Amino acid sequence: MYINPHIFREYDIRGIADTDLTEEVAEQIGKAYGSYIKSKEIIVGMDNRLSSERIKRALIKGILLIGKNVIDIGITINPIFYYSRVLYGIEGGAMVTGSHNPKEYNGFKLCKGDHTMVGRQIRELKDLIQNNKFISSDTGKVILKNPLKEFQKMVKEKIILNKKFKVVVDCGNGTAGIFAPAVFRNWGCEVVPLYCESDGNFPNHIPDPTKTEAMRELIAAVLRGKADIGFGFDGDGDRIGVVDNKGNIIWGDMLQILFQRELLKKNPGEKVIIEVKCSQSLYDDVLKHGGKPIFWKTGHSLIKEKMLEEDALIAGEMSGHTFFRDEYFGYDDALYAAGRVLRILDKTGKSLYELLADAPKYFSTPEIRALCPDEVKFEIVKRIVEDFKKMSNLEESGIKKVIDIDGARVVFENGWGLVRASNTQPALIIRAEGKTEEDLEKIKGVLENKMGEFPEVEFEWE
Fold it and tell me: Known catalytic residues?
């Protein structure tokens, strides 16, 4: 049986549902994961995509065939799935989810130990399948459980608010819409729901709060309703997008400024893990407030792994993933992150706009996803890293250094540009930032010229 090798990515398994994730493939992944994980019981959940039920059934069949029991928690979001592992004390967990991707995608987030599996471990699963090395035992059984009430009680107890906030919640018809409005109401908020009806066709917009076009209706609703704040969520509830009371999008890196300032007041000198796509303003603000910023690779699994390695209490990504070990469990929970934002507003009596008014202001592009085939994207990025490193030796290039922990973060005197390969889509991720608009345009020009050397890349600035 053929399995597309490109579905085994750096921090999850992801592909086109109808062609890459057939019942046969999903069953093989279930058998491999069940053989790989030591846990005798494995929690399985799924998002609301049209293909998820089919894929989940096949995954469970594979797990049962090698003798492991399945705790089926049904349709859920990643934060509830992650919490169920804490609640039930079970290491094994497999979530069927396409996350923020278009409706034709789906995939698996797989857990091992304290975090989700990463590159080497995922490749070992692929090897088990290719070599047909599965354990054999009596057939396991399925146990149905629902951790929703316990999750709701937990987040309600952790976030206590005195003010009744007016909050617009846009879930893009993703799975978060089933759960998010109730969580906000339990916090005492007045909720204005936007596309919170579950619909795996995503008829209004893809549930991806990193995309400006997916946030436009949220912005309009916040301004129209004079809301205190707006929150957008991705398809499985682990990414957050925020709109302040003046209709400004607060991207993930700016949101981290809010969180790390609160953290560093309580824990001076604490390490803060910063994903490589994030603004220099976040890095500078961490230093200003006495923290120790550490750049790291993109990816929820990689960030969580680094946070544990450094014993850090907080980490964040440009994409809206935020990881709290401060007062929480260390996984990315967009609902809890929203609660932390509201708690900060409540305690300070200020709006989000006011709280971030003194943050360093640079000029930046959004995160650009340039289509590029999986077969060539890593080789193209490797060549780009090499080219920019050679250029950095030339004084006239203006390049001060190249940070290559994940692609090329090319540092100039007055800004930076980034090119890296996506680990979830056939795409390159491109972003630029400058201290002035003129600096930004110069850096954009450098990156645009470089992208023009590769006809395989479909690239244009938004």
Answer: 14, 99, 321
